[in-house]
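thought: user wants a sequence for this fold. calling inverse folding tool.
action: design(structure=
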């Protein structure tokens, strides 16, 4: 059980530093190959970049403009893999791309969408279609005068839960997941790494590892420095991406991809039933990654970009929440931050005990990145098993026919006292594991205290025991987005409950 994975082992094959999507994915893959693994994360899982994305599993349509054909092909293939293995937290989404000939010509968009439909081997999602904005419901939210829109497919993902589920599966396969545990220093001693780890309560631990994997994200170079390695061949470029959330702007389950006059694009996505998510910006960043925040200029940029396309203007005063993250991209020396590659690069230092550092990457390709990382380390791990994750569902991903909606209906049918909205959220968040969460619950009293929006003490206890949640922020903004729905007094009640 994950609760048993908090002990610090004395020795492991692999020490993974960083609890974002890349670190959790590598830990899961390695544990499934029979390796002993420990993952240390100085904060919460997905506490930085991996919970600050646009929440998309996609090929990256705009990357075709920059000639990133290999990256787009791999990402589109991985989109299909994730959709098959994590249907509770990944769902199909139709994107509407309205056309304005002043920005990109029709032939360019058609050619890009044709490639997008075919280079990744699309098997399940519907292909591109063209709609009349004046007649089709997708045109209703758009400003008057637009004639044509292109509609294509991608997927939405709960990014933070994707990280947690990878960590859960890694723990289930024997990995030690050490949250609130910081790598203080590491050094090479007789062919292995000797690492000093500091827990949040101040306790220090020693751990020996044959191999160190540096998945520190924005802190990847800092991790190398703590290992006594100052010369790094690959370079890191930090780019800030910010998002805003506003009350729901339109009816319907479709998303919009809106072009801007700076040749960037902005996503407009349905979010948490009652809201709309808008993002993202691309701004060079030089500050401390843990203190990143949206600024007024970014908010104005996003509002202006969306208001140019929608019939209903969006203003900064409408914003109910915002978040920002730092993308740790491999520096390919592109002049424009939006043009910097989203591909990943490995730096392997084998002058003694090996250390593999990860530069760049995107959520969609994290599983393939993990496979490639284990391939690079294969010669140092002769007894390890082979690739296995492509056909392996993540925890909760073994859903019944009909997916999460069918599971939610079954939960209500068996428990008529359970609110339909709560059942739907549990099915989307936990998949088949919602049955375990509710095991032995005969009525509302067995759920314990109700904190609001369907969040019960039973669920909070599950998140503490099974998903490494410690604080109200962990629960309300990473394990869920219930922070958008709870009143301040409910948040305080949750904090008091966790402290007790």
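)
observation: tool returned 500 residues.
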């Amino acid at each position: 059980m994950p609760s048993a994975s908090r002990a610090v082992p004395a020795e492991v094959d692999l020490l993974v530093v960083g609890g974002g999507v890349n670190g959790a994915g590598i830990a899961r893959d390695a544990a499934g190959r029979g390796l002993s693994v420990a993952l240390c994360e100085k904060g919460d899982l997905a506490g930085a970049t991996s919970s600050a994305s646009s929440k998309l599993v996609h090929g990256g349509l705009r990357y075709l403009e920059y000639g990133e054909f290999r990256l787009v092909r791999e990402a589109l293939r991985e989109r299909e893999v994730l959709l098959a293995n994590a249907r509770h937290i990944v769902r199909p989404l139709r994107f509407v791309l309205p056309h304005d000939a002043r920005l990109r010509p029709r032939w360019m968009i058609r050619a890009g969408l044709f490639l997008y439909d075919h280079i990744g081997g699309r098997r399940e999602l519907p292909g591109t279609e063209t709609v009349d904005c004046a007649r089709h419901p997708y045109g209703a939210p758009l400003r008057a005068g637009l004639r044509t829109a292109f509609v294509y497919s991608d997927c939405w993902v709960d990014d933070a839960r994707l990280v947690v589920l990878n960590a859960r599966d890694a723990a289930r396969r024997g990995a030690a997941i050490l949250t609130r545990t910081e790598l203080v220093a590491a050094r090479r001693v007789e062919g292995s790494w000797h690492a000093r780890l500091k827990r949040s309560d101040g306790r220090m631990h020693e751990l020996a590892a044959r191999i160190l994997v540096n998945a520190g994200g924005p802190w990847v170079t800092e991790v190398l420095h703590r290992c006594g390695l100052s010369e790094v061949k690959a370079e890191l470029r930090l780019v800030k991406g910010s998002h805003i959330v506003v009350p729901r702007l339109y009816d319907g389950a479709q998303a919009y991809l809106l072009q801007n006059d700076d040749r960037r694009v902005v996503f407009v996505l349905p979010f948490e039933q009652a809201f709309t998510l808008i993002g993202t910006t691309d701004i060079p960043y030089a500050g401390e990654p843990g203190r990143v925040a949206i600024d007024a200029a970014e908010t104005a940029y996003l509002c202006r970009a969306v208001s140019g396309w929608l019939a209903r203007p969006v203003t900064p005063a409408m914003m109910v929440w915002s978040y920002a993250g730092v993308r740790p991209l491999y520096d390919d020396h592109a002049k424009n931050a939006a043009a910097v590659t989203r591909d990943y690069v490995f730096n392997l230092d084998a002058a003694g005990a090996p250390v593999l550092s990860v530069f760049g990457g995107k959520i969609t390709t994290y599983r393939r990145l993990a496979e490639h990382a284990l391939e690079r380390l294969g010669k140092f791990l002769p007894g390890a098993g082979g690739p296995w994750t492509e056909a392996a569902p993540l925890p909760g991903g073994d859903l019944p026919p009909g997916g999460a909606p069918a599971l939610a209906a079954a939960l209500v049918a068996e428990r008529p006292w359970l609110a339909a909205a709560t059942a739907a959220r549990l099915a989307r968040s936990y998949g088949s594991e919602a049955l375990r969460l509710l095991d032995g619950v005969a009525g509302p009293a067995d759920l314990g205290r109700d904190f609001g929006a369907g969040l019960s003490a039973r669920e909070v206890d599950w998140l503490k025991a099974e998903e490494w949640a410690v604080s109200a922020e962990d629960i309300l903004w990473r394990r869920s987005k219930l922070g958008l729905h709870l009143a301040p007094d409910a948040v305080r009640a949750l904090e008091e409950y966790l402290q007790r």
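thought: summarizing for user.
answer: Here is the designed sequence. The domain at 73-157+237-331 is CATH 3.30.9.10 (D-Amino Acid Oxidase; Chain A, domain 2).
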